[in-house]
Amino acid sequence: MGREAMNWVKRYLVEVRDGLMNANMNESALWLNQEGKRLSGQLLHIMIKRYVRSSDAISTHITPHSLRRACATHMLQHGASPFDIQLLLAMRI
User: Fold this and answer.
1) 28/34 Cα distance (integer angstroms)
2) Residue pLDDT, tens place only, 16-37
3) What is the pTM assigned to this prediction?
4) 91 and 54 within one domain
5) Same-domain pairing of 32 and 51
């Protein structure tokens, strides 16, 4: 993970996730919904659609899967090992 992404994850952990955890102290997932539960793929899809619609700069159809592919392609083009990318994409967060 790059430095910029790591900074944003750290900020999320300190400023957001702890507040969500109060609702569900047993959840181990990194990304949580407003109820403190694991962020579902369906909610993620809805959130992406909402952000795409609100942006005048994005004109293509974007899904969670297309973001996964774009991330993997970007990592491969910037020197990541195909094996490491495969492991990352297989993770359940």
Assistant:
1) 15
2) 998 888 766 788 888 898 888 8
3) 0.64
4) yes
5) no
